[in-house]
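=== RUN LOG ===
request id: a7f3
mode: sequence -> structure
chains: 1
length: 298
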Amino acid sequence: MNDLLAARSQMAMSLAFHIIFAVVGIAMPLMMVLAERRWLKAGDPVALDLAKRWAKGTAILFAVGAVSGTVLSFELGLLWPGFMEYAGPIIGMPFSLEGFAFFTEAIFLGIYLYGWNRISPRMHLASGVLVALSGALSGIFVVIANAWMNAPVGFAVVGGRPVNVDPLRAMLTPAALSQTLHMTLAAYAATGLAVAGIHAFFLLRDPSHRFHRTAAALALLVGAPAAILQPLSGDLSARFVARYQPAKLAAMEGQFETERGHRCASAGGPTRSAVRRATPSRSRTPSPCSPSTIRRRR
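=== RESULT ===
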């Protein structure tokens, strides 16, 4: 394994672990706020119990996500120093704003956890709303940095170095809307439907259990609309790829030859003949590391 593959593998493993806690940190605060609002509006004690339990779970998962996110921030500099040296001044602002959103979420999550019966109900609910809002903004700012990689803007290149950097213009990259919308909806859909599924499992044993019925209803209130809207955001993302990255769209579709009026493919895979036609011819000269070359050297 070479250094590049090792760096990619380590980053992939860290991201795969962190994304679980990231999406929960975006969606769970909204669900606990909806539960508390139901308690304030209807006086339902089950909703109050649910809000407190979800708040505790949010705090635990938030702490784990904070640690895994810190690991990723170090990996950006340690594994990709050349990229960060070049692009750091351009995409530094969304990372900085993500830090502000993170600390805002941490502060008001503490107020939410320890503010029961210590501040007014409206202020307590407002602190939960700020937790949910800052959690969503935290994810949005990070995704904006990734969106810039797909459509880099906000700078000029002189002598191989970025100059005339405009951080705000960089944040308004054409890929920002489609990617942030898709990721945010994905967080709400995945978390909401997962939580609804857990409580639905317990409802199979006791369909009249009020706690699980209330929890499943609130979770579906978050997950179902997001799941319905997600295909629309996916279409928006695909339209961006078609306009700005046509070669990537062709690779995604398995389209190896340029042609007009190509029919859409809902399923399938590239054939060997298609891959062979799209692959440039290569010299038959053995690689310096091939077995035949090594044997001749010996």
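=== NOTES ===
Residues 3-171 form one domain.
The radius of gyration is 24 Å.
=== END ===
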